[in-house]
Each structure stands twice: as C-alpha cells, then as structure tokens.
Amino acid sequence: MALIRQRKSGTWEIVIQRKGLLDKPYYASAPYKVEAEIYAAGVERLLDQGVLPTELAAVQAETGEVLRDWARRYMTSIPVALSDRDVLNSMWELLGAWSVSRLNLDWAEGWIAQMKALRLSPSTIRHKSGAVRQWDGLLPPIGIIVPEG
Q: What is the pTM of this model?
C-alpha cells in the first residue's frame, strides 16, 4: 500500500515501497490528492503483476551485479540444455558488460536490434534471446520480457 501524505506546501507526496521489486522507496508528488491516489493505484497494480514501471526502474540504485552473475546462477541451479550452455558460454564476455539494474524492455529491444545490425542470422538471434529468456521465473523480477528475435 502506497503512503500518500500532504506536504506543508500543499502538494501530495506518494511513497511506494515493495520488497523484491524496489531496492529503495520511490517518491513522487501530485498537486491533488485524487491524482496521487490514482497514480499510486496504477503503479501498485503494475507491481502486483511483477512489472516494474520505467519511471521506477530509472531511480533504482546500481546493484553492481551483471548479467553474467545471473547466467552463472542459472547454469548452476538447474539442468541447462547443451545448446543453451554453448550459446551462453559464447556470450560470456558480453554478459559481463550488462548491468542487471539497467535491464528493461528498451535494453532487450536494443540488444535484438544490435544483433540484426551485425547481420546475425535469425536463428542465431533466436538462440541467443531464447537462452536469456529461459531465466524468466528463476531470477528476481525486473519487469522485462526479452522479445522474440
């Protein structure tokens, strides 16, 4: 439940906290109480679905964790198909450059676009995005879905 309170200035402050999705409280403001309530209800509805709205993702602190950390956790926690393991191993250096706190749908679409610009074959793009897509549900929710190549 979001906290909504009136400031001395007359505006309404919204404080949203959610363990597992937000590293720290998110603060917003609105000129009217009804606007604050509508905004907070919309954000909470998304958070209940496990979706991290873009405006909240932008303020989350850098975790220092990179996608390679997730790949290592994934590959050691469940049986991974040999084809996926080969794909992830071929991407090992690249996975070390991607900060987990910056992952979102824009990142995923940009990654797909980069692979297309490099003229990788559609099957290669599907294999790479498919290997990453397998992590859904295994790792903490971050509000992204890797699109189809």
A: 0.47
Q: What is the pLDDT of residues 13-55, one digit of tens each?
A: 999 988 766 777 888 888 999 999 999 999 888 888 777 776 7
91 and 117, same structural domain? Answer: yes
Same domain, residue pair 95 and 127: yes
What are the CB-based long-range contacts (under 8 Å, 24+) for 104-112? 104/52, 104/54, 104/57, 104/142, 104/143, 104/144, 105/143, 105/144, 105/145, 105/147, 106/54, 107/144, 108/144, 108/145, 108/146, 108/147, 109/147, 112/147, 112/149
In terms of domains, do 25 and 72 share one?
no
Q: Are residues 53 and 71 in the same domain?
A: no
Residue 124 sits in which domain range? 67-133
Give domain status of residue 146, yes or no: no
pLDDT tops 60 at residue 61: no
| 89/56: higher pLDDT | 89
Instruction: Work out how many domains the chain is built from and give that number.
Output: 2
pLDDT value at residue 111: 83
- Distance CA(90)–CA(115), nearest Å, equals 14
Average pLDDT of span 76-98: 80
